Each structure stands twice: as structure tokens, then as C-alpha cells.
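pasting for ref
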Amino acid sequence: MSNSNFTVLVVDDDQDDIELFCDALKLINSSITCLIAEDGIAALNLLNQLIIHPQIIFLDFNMPQMNGGLCLAEIRKTESLKHIPVVMYSTFFSDDGIIEFKQAGAYLIKKQMQFKEMIQSILSALRNFYPDLKTDLQ
């Protein structure tokens, strides 16, 4: 898959996590565009305004306003959005949450504290949906 115009939406209420996430994406491939939303409501508003949707959404579970689970449910109910791959991430998933998110077609990753592990988790998720994605990693 060509990396030109490869866009990722990162939805997280923690500004530090967003910066680390986007830094990790840029290290994985410097041509990736990183869009940002601070909660589920902002993410849905952005997605509904975009003419060209992102190739993948990374969605934090624990957020105020609208958490990742509710946002995922809305994405899956919306005809123009339901095809977009979604990666749910959190420091903790309940057993019920794991089942629910997987049934909704989401890929799950655990929030990593170490930057190197974060890069690997993100790369694993990207490759799950886009196995031919080129990377800048050595």
C-alpha cells in the first residue's frame, strides 16, 4: 500500500499521550498524517466534516464526554464510517470490554509506558489492517 496520503486519527484526552502517539507514527513512517481529537464527540464531529476519511482510527477507551466504547458504537452505526479500521487502546480492558470491542471489529492494544514498546504496539496494529505498509524503521 502506498503511504502517500495515509492518515491516522488519534482520539485521546491526554495531550502528552497524543504527542507521543503522533511522534511514534512519524517514526514508523514520516509521511503519515496524524489527525487529533480530544474525545469521542470531537472525533465524530471531525469524521463527519472530512471529505476523505482516515485510513485508521486509534481510539482511547477512557475519556470524558464520550468514551472510546461509545464512540466506536457510533462509528459502527454510521454508514460512511463503519468501514474504517478502529484500534482501541487503554491501560486496562475488562473482559466484557474485550469481547464487546472485538465483536465490533476493533483491534485492541494496551497503552505502553515505554516509547519503544508503544511504537511496536502501534506498528502491530497498523500491520494487522495494512500488512504492506512501508515503514521508516531500521
